Amino acid sequence: RTVMALSLSAVSDHTATTNAVAGGAGTNGTGVGISAGIAIVNDATTARLGTGAGTTTISGDFTASAVHTGTSVTTAGAKSSGDTAVGIGIGVNVTVVECRDSRDGVV
């Protein structure tokens, strides 16, 4: 296969939102509120010319681009009331972003 020019592009936009809220109340006692918000996000954006049967010949320009836009927000909150009160909110956000443009094989 022969082509004059080849341009590849990949664009992605990912949003991850995690919210955790808890409350505890104790009348004449103890109030405990505990919450945990955990987000594990794996985003990948790839523009790739892979291998296949035969050979691809490009007589002109070859371009590949990958653009990723992302937002990852995690919130956690806790409220408590009582004679003795404890409120704990834990938010954990782990985000792995992979954005690549490539070519495999011989071009």
Describe the fold and architecture.
- The protein is mostly beta strands.
- The chain is 0% helix and 79% strand.
- It has no helices and six strands.
- The strands form three sheets. Strands 1-4 form a two-stranded parallel ribbon. The chain has a two-stranded parallel ribbon with strand order 2-5. A two-stranded parallel ribbon has the order 3-6.
- The mean pLDDT is 86.
Write the layout of secondary structure elements.
Blueprint: E1 2-3, E2 6-25, E3 30-49, E4 57-58, E5 62-81, E6 84-103
Parallel strand pairs: 1-4, 2-5, 3-6
User: What is the terminal separation in angstroms?
Assistant: 11 Å
- As residue ranges, the low-confidence spans are none
Beta percentage is over 45%
Structural class: mainly beta
> Got a strand count?
6
Q: Percent range for helical residues?
A: under 10%
Summarize the helix and strand pattern as letters: EEEEEE
User: How does the overall form come out from the CA principal axes?
Assistant: rod-shaped
Number of separate helices:
0
Radius of gyration: 25 Å
Provide the spatial order of strands within the biggest beta sheet: 1-4
Q: What summary fits the major beta sheet?
A: 2 strands, parallel
Determine the mean pLDDT. Answer: 86
Task: Name its key features.
mainly beta, two-stranded parallel sheet, 107 residues, rod-shaped
Summarize, please:
It is built from no helices and six strands. By secondary structure, the chain is mostly beta strands.
